[in-house]
Write a structure and sequence with these properties.
Helices cover about 40% and strands about 20% of the residues. It is of the alpha/beta class. Strand 2, helix 2 and strand 3 form a beta-alpha-beta unit. The relative contact order is 0.14.
Length: about 300
């Protein structure tokens, strides 16, 4: 297939592009800057000039392709309404050229949209008042195309997609531990985070493009829930630092403000059993704690 990809030069995107190319697919990737275009070319993809706000460019990319994978997400986190609008309208521009074609449209979301405090499945409804409710509009915009002859599906990624040169939530924890001299968790630390290795996530995206049924919601989760205490203790051992428990008020000062304190205290386990059964997806790469112990998280230079 010829796949048009957004976000192909981001953190997870290069692994996905490489997976698609290795499987024999031709990839065209949205690129705004020269460095992004060069990165895509190095992976064997063809750059397509444009941005998420250039809807004409998005439509042209989708029209020329046999399927679309939308991974890009950005904007100003101080204006979540604008971020939701930007994502939703980009998805609408990508999906409209695919109507009544049976072609795949795969859109990325996150498992933090799910309700807290229990293990959620792909069949459960997202929490419209939750910590990541701003991602739900994009999910719905994608799935609406399933009724319009598009093989639309949503992949919800774990909050930590780990692997070499990660620059997400876990490196932020490591950097905070180095800066403060302690590796911390909130409360008793039993709150759970799902995790997936970047290379396993890449396989899931390929499988979704190749065979996910219209209307599918998929969970990109290899581990349903790793406790934050286990994560903090692994970081502490690797950096030879003490581990401490913080109250929510203390956490707001320890991390980068109240929102990040809420994120790191969030209990958000999810299952991927339906996804594995539906697509035959079977994660094989290292776990999050293995990556923390043996990867580059604790050996990379402090930033």
């Amino acid at each position: 297939m010829h796949i048009f990809v957004t976000g192909g030069s981001g953190q997870t995107g290069p692994a996905v592009v490489a997976e698609l190319v290795a499987a024999g697919h031709h990839v065209t990737g949205l690129a705004r800057f020269g460095t992004a275009a060069a990165r895509l070319e190095s992976l064997g993809a063809t750059p397509h000039h444009g941005s998420l706000d250039d809807h004409d460019s998005l439509r042209r990319g989708a029209e020329a392709a046999d399927g679309v994978l939308h991974m890009a997400y950005g904007g100003d986190f101080s204006d979540l309404d604008d971020m939701m609008r930007r994502d939703r309208t980009a998805i609408e521009a990508l999906g409209q050229p695919l109507e009544h074609s049976g072609k795949p449209l795969v859109v990325t979301s996150g498992t933090l949209v799910m309700p807290a405090g229990r293990e959620s499945t792909e069949k459960d409804e997202p929490d419209t008042t939750g910590i990541a409710a701003f991602r739900i509009a994009g999910e719905r915009a994608c799935l609406d195309f399933a009724a319009l002859g598009v093989r639309a599906s949503v992949v919800r990624l774990a909050p930590t997609v780990h692997g070499p040169e990660d620059h997400g939530f876990i490196p932020m924890l490591v950097a905070t531990a180095r800066r403060t001299g302690v590796s911390a968790y909130v409360g008793d630390g039993t709150n759970r985070w799902p995790a997936v290795h970047r290379l396993d996530a890449a396989v899931l995206f390929r499988l979704a493009l190749e065979k996910a049924p219209a209307g599918s919601v998929l969970h990109g989760v290899a581990e349903s829930g790793v406790t934050m205490k286990d994560i903090a203790q692994t970081i502490a051992r690797g950096l030879d630092l003490p581990t401490v428990s913080l109250t929510p008020d203390q956490a707001a000062g320890h991390y980068a403000g109240p929102f990040m304190a809420r994120v790191y205290g969030f209990d958000a386990p999810v299952s991927s059993a339906h996804t594995r059964e539906l697509l035959g997806w079977s994660p094989t790469h290292p776990t999050l704690l293995d990556d923390l112990k043996h990867g580059d998280y604790l050996t990379a230079p402090a930033s």
